[in-house]
C-alpha cells in the first residue's frame, strides 16, 4: 500500500472513530436542558482536526493497545480541548467570532450558555476518562488534570492574556506554549500509551521528548498559518494575533526562521522515536502532518 494512502486511511478511520465516541459520550440534544446540551454538541462535533485523539491512538498503538481501549482517553483529551476553545473565544478572553468555519459557541448560544457548555465539557472529560479501561484510572485523571490546570493549559492561557501588548523573549514564549498548547498534547500521548503494555522508563522519556517537540511544533505552525492562512482555509479568524499585539514565533523570529524552528522540532520528534522502530510509525507521521499542514 502507498505509504501516503496508508496514513490517510489510518487517520481517517481514527477520526471517524473518535467522532462516534464523542457522539455517544455527549448528552442528546433532545434532553433538557436543551440549550446547554445543544451548545456542547455544537462545540465538539462535526469539526476540528482531532490531533489530540490521533496522538492518543498512535501512542496506544505503539504500546500495543487496541483502539477500543484508547477510546476513553482519546475522547477525554478532545473534550478538554473543546472546552478550552469555547472559553478562549469568549469576549473576556480572545473575543473571537469564528471557530472551525462557523460562529463561535458564544455567538451561536450566548455567553452564559457557552460558559456553562465549557464547564460541562470539562466535567464530562473526567467522567469519560474515569469510566475508561485504563490500568490506573487515578493516575490517568491526575495526568489530565495537571495538563488542564495552572501548570498546564489554563496557566499558559493566563500568561498569554498578560502578554498582549508586551514583549516576551524566546524562552518565555516557548514556556507559555509548552503550557497552553503542549501540555494537553503531552497528556494525549501519555494517556494513549498508558492504555497499552507498560513501557520502560527510557521509553516513557522518549515519548515525552517526542510529545514536547510535537506540541511546540504545533504552536509554531499555528503562528505561521495565522500570517499565511485565511479564514477560509483555517476555519478561524486569520491575522488576529498580530492585530491584538500578541507575541508569536513569527513576531519574535520572523516568518522564515519560524518555519525553520518548526522543521527542527519535527526532526527532534523523529529522533525521539528512533528507538521504537516501526512501533512509532504513526507518531512519526503525525509529527510530519503537524509541521507540513496548511490549516
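^ Assign residues to that structure.
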Amino acid at each position: 500500500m502507498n505509504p501516503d494512502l496508508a496514513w490517510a486511511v489510518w487517520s481517517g478511520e481514527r477520526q471517524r472513530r473518535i467522532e462516534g465516541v464523542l457522539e455517544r459520550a455527549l448528552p442528546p440534544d433532545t434532553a433538557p436542558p436543551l440549550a446547554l446540551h445543544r451548545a456542547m454538541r455544537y462545540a465538539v462535533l462535526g469539526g476540528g482536526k482531532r490531533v489530540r485523539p490521533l496522538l492518543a491512538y498512535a501512542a496506544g498503538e505503539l504500546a500495543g493497545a487496541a483502539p477500543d481501549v484508547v477510546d476513553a482517553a482519546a475522547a477525554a483529551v478532545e473534550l478538554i480541548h473543546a472546552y478550552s476553545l469555547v472559553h478562549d473565544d469568549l469576549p473576556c478572553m480572545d473575543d473571537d467570532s469564528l471557530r472551525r468555519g462557523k460562529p463561535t459557541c458564544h455567538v451561536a448560544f450566548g455567553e452564559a450558555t457557552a460558559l456553562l457548555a465549557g464547564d460541562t465539557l470539562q466535567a464530562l472529560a473526567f467522567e469519560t476518562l474515569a469510566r475508561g479501561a485504563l490500568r490506573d484510572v487515578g493516575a490517568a485523571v491526575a495526568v489530565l488534570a495537571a495538563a488542564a490546570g495552572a501548570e498546564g493549559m489554563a496557566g499558559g492561557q493566563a500568561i498569554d492574556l498578560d502578554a498582549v501588548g508586551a514583549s516576551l523573549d524566546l524562552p518565555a514564549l516557548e514556556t507559555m506554549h509548552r503550557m497552553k498548547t503542549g501540555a494537553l498534547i503531552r497528556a494525549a500521548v501519555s494517556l494513549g500509551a498508558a492504555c497499552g503494555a507498560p513501557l520502560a522508563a527510557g521509553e516513557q522519556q522518549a515519548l515525552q521528548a517526542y510529545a514536547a517537540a510535537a506540541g511546540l511544533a504545533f504552536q509554531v505552525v499555528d503562528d505561521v498559518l495565522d500570517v499565511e492562512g485565511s479564514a477560509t482555509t483555517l476555519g478561524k479568524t486569520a491575522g488576529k494575533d498580530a492585530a491584538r499585539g500578541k507575541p508569536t514565533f513569527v513576531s519574535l523570529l520572523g516568518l522564515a526562521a519560524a518555519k525553520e524552528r518548526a522543521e527542527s522540532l519535527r526532526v527532534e520528534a523523529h529522533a525521539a522515536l528512533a528507538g521504537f522502530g516501526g512501533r512509532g510509525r504513526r507518531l512519526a507521521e503525525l509529527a510530519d502532518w503537524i509541521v507540513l499542514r496548511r490549516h
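The chain has a mean pLDDT of 93.
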